Amino acid sequence: MAPLSTTDLPAIPAAQGNTPASQAAAAAEAAAPAAPPSTPPANDAARARLERLMARGAAFLGSRVAIMGGAMSWISERNLVAALSNAGAFGVIACGAMEPPRLAEEIAATQALTDKPFGVNLITMHPRLDALVQVCLDAKVGHIVFAGGIPPTPAIRKAKEGGAKVVCFAPALALAKKLVRSGADALVIEGSEAGGHIGPVSLNVLAQEILPAMAAEVPVFVAGGIGRGEALLSYLEMGAAGAQIGTRFVCATESIAHPKFKQAFIRGAARDALPTVQLDERFPVIPVRALQNEGTKRFLEHQAGVIRRHQSGELDKVAAQLDIEHYWAGALRRAVIDGDVENGSLMAGQSVGMVTKEAPAAEILAELMDQAAAALAARA
Ligand SMILES: Cc1cc2nc3c(=O)[nH]c(=O)nc-3n(C[C@H](O)[C@H](O)[C@H](O)COP(=O)(O)O)c2cc1C
């Protein structure tokens, strides 16, 4: 379906706002005190109930609040990670393509900024995965998050035997069960609403498929599209132990993302954060959700050009696939660090529309918790 614009929406008939009932409602509204703030205050009972809903996840993480900062390459480094952990959440370093000595340095620098627990996210296809696990163990990192594919069982075993808790991404129920059998201590289920590399299924559906089956066995953290506390609350009530949130923390004051990258988030709307388009099924493209820019437009032209060169015999299939894959090499760094928001990759989740300003991590976290507690209080 083509995207709707406001001009596509049906007009409301004038009479609809002019009935006796609506006039009475308008009069009542005029007489009522000023509109409440967007997040009404929550009472102590609601906060206590929210804490109970998060107790298992918080105990697993060793944090006050069961919210993991989603590891974001180039962004989730010492400053944001420490800020989240100091604020009561659970920061996670994104190792990305770092080599072991560089990861060791980043962990030590984070430990210098916080005495609270934090985790490290390792990409399973990293050629030095084993050495990276060892770096985490040597530094006494309590939680290792394996991302970007199903982790090899020896890596899980090594992490656990070294004393770390293991968190794995489960993209489907069958894999969730397999990962727990392989030793995963907790799971993240990440829906396609998320920023960065995504699977095909929304969190809405993953939560319904996986939480009833797995939540009793291990803590399950939900990720993707969580921008407000009310959504967080609803997943906790479905059995989630907590959430992993990325997009909402990009514009934390402590985040080192370039001001232009943050500005793109503050301006961005949910409908601007789209998955990469694949032109030809012979040349698969890993879907990445990102804000659209010149780079995403040119990627389509790039694919078309490569496919033409393949069809004319200039490029064989492997070379053509590599050419397409290389297009985005280094693109996230260009946007996050250099501020090239036109050509770099603006990985962002659909909750980007709920990022409206730069604010300290503690404030963003408090806002999410206030919204969740206020939603609970409103029911009472
Ligand atoms: C800019 C950006 C970079 C990301 N990089 C990584 C990464 O390096 N490793 C990873 O496992 N997930 C990565 N993610 C996903 C986050 O860890 C997290 O799961 C996701 O942001 C949650 O969805 P949300 O963005 O809707 O909150 C990234 C997300 C964003 C927005």
Automatic annotation (TrEMBL):
InterPro entries: Aldolase_TIM (IPR013785), NMO (IPR004136)
UniProt protein name: Enoyl-[acyl-carrier protein] reductase II
GO terms of molecular function: nitronate monooxygenase activity
Coiled-coil positions: none
Organism encoding this protein: Muricoccus roseus
Keyword line: Flavoprotein, FMN, Oxidoreductase
Top-level lineage group: Bacteria
Residues covered by region (Disordered): 1-43
Organismal lineage: Bacteria, Pseudomonadati, Pseudomonadota, Alphaproteobacteria, Acetobacterales
A Pfam family annotated for this UniProt entry: NMO
Gene3D superfamilies the UniProt entry points to: Aldolase class I (3.20.20.70)
Compositional bias per record (Low complexity), positions renumbered to this chain: 14-33
PANTHER family: 2-NITROPROPANE DIOXYGENASE (PTHR32332), 2-NITROPROPANE DIOXYGENASE-LIKE PROTEIN (PTHR32332:SF20)
